[in-house]
């Protein structure tokens, strides 16, 4: 009997992956353009407006509104990782209202890790019109967002990629409304946008420039700092350079662009190159990576790579950095929307020991090179010699292998302060075969080891956006990290429609170093009482506690307090804090003093910057404080021109009595008016 039971268990385990594959729902082939080729379109293209054009011309069917998507399951908002302090991070919608959002690109200001720019493919809801790559900004670490659902600089074809330079100029790159490439930029936080043509389409539909990326060189040690780079795939309907990667550069802050270079011909792809990703190195090196398709329709079969060492003027010959991979574009997942294995790349710009290392991630069926089994996992390769040689693939997601679980749409970010890595991806380890969640993997040792944690509060059942074509639910996720703050951004349909969410995470410094930051503070008036708000005209002292969150001691630490606000004058700005053991906090009463302007607005959020420094290193952190002041407003105005023409308008030469109601809408009393 025991032998029979063992045999039955053995048969079940051996049959399990085949049973899973047989049960695979996947996408509906009626809407799968890869399985329905036509002379009316190029089914290699992965662009929302392109397929909407095909839909309007009845070349393809749109995804119908047959039924509502299943309700999402709430699974909790706690971030649980042994690498981090336990933290509650509820999901925050980027946009709310009658819109859909998909394909996420997000970045931080290089000098302010709480200032963010995000862009998505945007439509109205229910879908009637396509707005393209929209824009949203946050000034408070992703807690709140402002922006427009319409395209940055006008309607466009989407595929957003964003950047911010040191001067605060915002950039959104996208496929334009004529299927060429454009970039919009704004110098006033998105209130006004200037649209610049980067490259025209290579002909009429079905030709297009597809799957673009945009990057900006923000390395202070780069001779090309400030250069903006764009790249894409040229689909020329069988014309010149069809299926090749093209590249353009701007040395004028995005106002003008070079003629495109073709950089992928040495790859000799059997079909085409697609899904390009751009990054820059500490000395201004420009790196591009992309997926290679040697057969079509088919899965990704290799990773192509090219490098430039003169700011994008010329490129070294492109080459394959990894052959014999198996992506997921044709084989698909068990989820009901189209997918791909486009690679994502990051470069370490920190001053840490791995400075200059290049990291590339993608999704693969089985272990790369073997490419068997039903697991879809995220893999990483890295190079420490400017892309000349590469490591063996490292599995990023850390759940138990061999169970047919699926992890896909990875995007990677390297914190330019710590050098630590964060990778976002969809994940179904705790879900049914039709559901997924959003997870992040984190590494503080250059990708040699990883810790996973779920960031979405829900498990959801994705499905194509009703009214669009080609099984579309978005083609990539986004993540950015800066100064130990991680911002993953993804799309899910928990509300019955596709919307974008973020869940900001506080991470840790790189190992083997001290790291002293602000822990807490108390403002006191000169009577010694604590105050909750900074009142106009006040002179205050501040108690400040700092903590060493690193794993090494910090010695002879001085702390300096500053503020960029014109309403704050720091009257006592520096204090000696001494030595910190790892995880030790040091609190000093009345360490600093400041004067609040008597013209400060009510309810203003003022920023204070804390700079801690030992003999050779400094660490920046900050905090905010709210103000309290009167806010006088005229609520009602009456004009009495009884001795004139009584029209209640002060006409020329007329005498009139003016009365008004004055109200204080502020948080502080206003005397002697």
Task: Break the fold down into its secondary structure elements and pairings.
Layout: H1 2-22, H2 48-56, E1 73-74, E2 78-79, E3 87-88, E4 92-93, E5 99-109, E6 112-124, E7 130-133, E8 135-138, E9 146-148, E10 158-164, E11 170-175, E12 181-186, E13 194-199, E14 208-216, E15 228-235, E16 244-250, E17 261-262, E18 272-280, E19 286-293, E20 302-308, E21 319-323, E22 344-347, E23 358-365, E24 376-383, E25 394-395, E26 407-414, E27 421-427, E28 437-443, E29 451-454, E30 458-459, E31 478-482, E32 485-492, E33 499-502, E34 505-506, E35 516-524, E36 530-531, E37 534-535, E38 539-548, E39 554-562, E40 568-572, E41 574-580, E42 585-596, E43 605-613, E44 618-628, E45 632-640, E46 657-664
Parallel strand pairs: 37-44
Antiparallel strand pairs: 1-30, 2-3, 4-33, 5-6, 6-7, 6-8, 8-9, 10-11, 11-12, 12-13, 14-15, 15-16, 16-17, 18-19, 19-20, 20-21, 22-23, 23-24, 24-25, 26-27, 27-28, 28-29, 31-32, 32-33, 32-34, 35-36, 35-38, 38-42, 39-41, 39-43, 40-42, 43-44, 45-46
């Amino acid at each position: 009997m025991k032998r029979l039971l063992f045999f039955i268990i053995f048969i079940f385990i051996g049959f399990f992956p085949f049973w899973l594959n047989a049960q695979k729902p996947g996408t509906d082939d009626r809407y799968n353009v890869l399985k329905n080729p036509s002379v009316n379109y190029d089914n290699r293209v992965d662009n929302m407006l392109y397929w909407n054009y095909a839909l309007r011309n009845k070349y393809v069917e749109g995804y119908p509104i047959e039924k509502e998507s299943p309700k999402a399951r709430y699974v909790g908002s706690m971030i649980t990782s042994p690498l981090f302090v336990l933290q509650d991070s509820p999901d925050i919608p980027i946009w709310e209202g009658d819109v859909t959002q998909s394909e996420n690109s997000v970045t931080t200001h290089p000098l302010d890790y709480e200032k963010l720019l995000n862009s998505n493919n945007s439509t109205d809801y229910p879908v009637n019109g396509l707005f393209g790559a929209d824009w949203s900004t946050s000034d408070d670490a992703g807690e709140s967002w402002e922006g427009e659902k319409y395209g940055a600089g006008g309607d466009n074809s989407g595929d957003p990629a964003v950047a911010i330079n040191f001067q605060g100029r915002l950039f959104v790159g996208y496929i334009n409304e004529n299927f060429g490439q454009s970039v919009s930029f704004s110098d006033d936080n998105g209130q006004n946008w200037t649209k610049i043509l980067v490259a025209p389409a290579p002909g009429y539909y079905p030709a297009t420039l597809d799957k673009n990326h945009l990057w900006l060189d923000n390395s202070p040690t780069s001779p090309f700092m400030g250069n903006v780079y764009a790249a894409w795939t040229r689909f020329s309907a069988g014309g010149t350079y069809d299926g090749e990667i093209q590249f353009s550069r701007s040395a004028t802050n995005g106002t003008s662009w070079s003629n495109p270079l073709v950089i992928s011909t040495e790859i000799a792809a059997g079909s085409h190159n697609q899904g390009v990703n751009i990054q820059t190195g500490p000395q201004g090196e420009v790196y591009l990576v992309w997926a290679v398709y040697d057969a079509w329709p088919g899965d990704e079969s290799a990773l192509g790579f090219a490098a430039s060492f003169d700011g994008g003027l010329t490129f070294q010959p492109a080459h394959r950095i990894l052959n014999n991979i198996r992506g997921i574009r044709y084989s698909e997942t068990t989820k009901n929307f189209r997918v791909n294995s486009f690679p994502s790349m990051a470069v370490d710009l920190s001053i840490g020991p791995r400075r200059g290392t290049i990291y590339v991630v993608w999704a693969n069926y089985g272990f790369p090179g073997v490419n068997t089994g039903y697991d879809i996992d995220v893999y990483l390769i890295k190079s420490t010699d400017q892309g000349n040689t590469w490591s063996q693939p490292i599995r990023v997601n850390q759940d138990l292998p061999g169970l047919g679980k699926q992890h896909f749409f990875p995007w990677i970010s390297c914190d330019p302060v710590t050098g630590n890595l964060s990778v976002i991806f969809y994940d179904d380890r705790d879900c049914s075969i039709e559901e997924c969640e959003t997870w992040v993997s984190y590494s503080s040792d250059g990708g040699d080891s990883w810790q996973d944690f779920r960031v979405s509060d829900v498990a959801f059942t994705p499905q194509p956006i009703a009214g669009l074509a080609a099984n579309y639910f978005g083609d990539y996720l986004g993540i950015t990290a800066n100064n130990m703050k991680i911002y993953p951004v993804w799309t899910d349909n928990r509300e019955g429609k596709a919307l974008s969410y973020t869940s900001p995470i506080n991470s840790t410094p790189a190992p083997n170093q001290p790291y002293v930051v602000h822990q807490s503070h108390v403002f006191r008036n000169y009577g010694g009482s604590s105050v909750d708000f900074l009142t106009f005209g006040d002179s205050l002292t501040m108690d400040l506690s700092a903590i060493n969150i690193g794993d090494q001691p910090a010695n002879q630490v001085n702390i300096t307090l500053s503020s960029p606000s014109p309403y704050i004058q720091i009257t006592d700005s520096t204090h000696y804090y001494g030595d910190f053991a790892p995880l030790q906090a040091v609190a000093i009463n009345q360490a600093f003093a400041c004067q609040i302007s008597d013209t400060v607005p009510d309810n203003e959020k003022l920023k204070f910057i804390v700079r801690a420094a030992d003999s050779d290193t400094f660490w920046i952190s900050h905090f905010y404080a709210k103000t309290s002041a009167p806010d006088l407003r005229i609520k009602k105005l009456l004009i009495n021109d009884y001795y004139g023409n009584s029209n209640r308008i002060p006409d020329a030469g007329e005498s009139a009595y003016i009365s008004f109601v004055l109200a204080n809408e502020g948080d502080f009393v206003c005397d002697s008016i």
